[in-house]
Amino acid sequence: MKSINEYIDDRLIISDISAETKEEALRALVDRIFEVRPEIFSGDFAASDLYGQVLERENIQTTGMGNGIAFPHARIADFNDFVLAIGISKNGIDWKSRDDKPCHRICLMFSPILKPYLILQMMSVLASFMCEPENINRLTCDLSSKQIAELIKESTLVTTKMVLARDIMHPVLKTVQLETSIEEATHMMHLNRLDILPVIDDTDTLLGEISCMDIFKYGIPDFFSQLQTISFMRNLDPFEKYFKLKKDLKVRDIYSPDVNVIPKEATLMEMIFEMTTKNKLKLFVVDSDKLIGAVDRYSIIDKILFF
Questions:
Q1: 71-96 b/e with 16+ CB inside 10 Å = b?
Q2: Alpha-carbon distance 125 to 163, whole Å?
Q3: Integer angstrom CA distances of residue 183 from 38, 249, 270, 303
Q4: Helix 22-36 and helix 47-60: axis angle, to 10°?
């Protein structure tokens, strides 16, 4: 495993970036890369080319991951190096992040087109470092670029050779508890277009999940799944029991404790196996039974195939 330290260059850290918009921040970081390390780009490659590629990627989908962090990036053809530039914004920049909060830490990365996992691995270790409450406070203080570089290096973070669940998981923004009403849960599913909601307790321990399928099946006789035809009972209203009791129904009445969980160290192959062979739509990522994220089929498309 390689240490992240070899990629940290204090000359490529803007400790108090003055940009007010995403575009200004990207331009400032790209210009800094060309100012400090112009030798890594061959031929007629210009700053405008680099800026255009990262902005094109950004316009397809925001790289604002939430928690005040953005990871703008691009994979470059005929490029054999890796470069990381970091900007710290005291005031925050609107990055259209998943949690709608301003971005204070921007990590701009460029890698070879044939090495897609390098950016993912760097994102993983930098996110782990920058999401620590202590580091969030320290990074937004009046530290110099050299002090920020040393702070990151002292963390002894390492990259891994394999893509793990923690690298591609996304935060779980909507959860329910056992005493949440089914009416509220279905409303949450509708507004957020969610098929599955994790069920947690007050300590974020994952207890199970409730899905649209659980609600569909509620009130259906047990023998229903064994039938070859429903011709003799096709006029049965499958939601009659639900609507009759919905005001009193709680998540605990319908949810399934048999939840699809994986550890944060699960490999890409393990995730693919669970989703394909076992036909699972969503996997919840846990750390000591605590819910820390989720991986679904879109995660694979978004972070691996589309990345």
A1: bbbbbbeebeebbbbbbbbeeebebe
A2: 12
A3: 58, 8, 35, 34
A4: 150
Beta-carbon-side half-sphere exposure of residue 202 (alpha carbons within 13 Å): 1
Report the alpha-carbon distance of residue 144 to residue 155 in Å, rounded. Answer: 17
Q: pLDDT in tens for each of the 307 residues of the chain? A: 456 778 899 999 999 999 999 999 999 999 999 899 988 877 677 888 889 989 998 888 888 988 899 999 988 887 888 899 999 998 899 999 878 889 999 999 998 887 777 787 788 778 878 878 888 888 876 889 999 999 888 875 655 556 788 878 888 989 999 999 998 999 999 999 999 999 999 999 999 999 988 888 776 655 455 656 655 555 666 666 666 666 788 999 999 998 889 999 898 888 888 887 777 888 999 999 999 999 988 777 776 656 5
CA distance 116 to 111: 7
Vertex 205 angle, CA 269 and 188, to 5°: 85
Q: Structure tokens of 299?
A: 């995660």
63: nearest Cα among 51, 77, 86, 55: 55
What's 172's DSSP letter? -
Distance CA 275, CA 299 (A): 11
Q: What contacts 60, CB < 8 A, 6 or more positions away?
A: none
Task: Find, among 238, 234, 232, 245, the residue nearest to 212 by Cα.
Answer: 238
How far, in Å, CA of 285 to CA of 307, rounded?
Answer: 21
DSSP structure class, residue 101: P
Residues 6 or more apart in contact with residue 145 via CB below 8 angstroms: 10, 11, 13, 14, 15
Counting DSSP H helices and E strands in the chain, the numbers are 12, 11
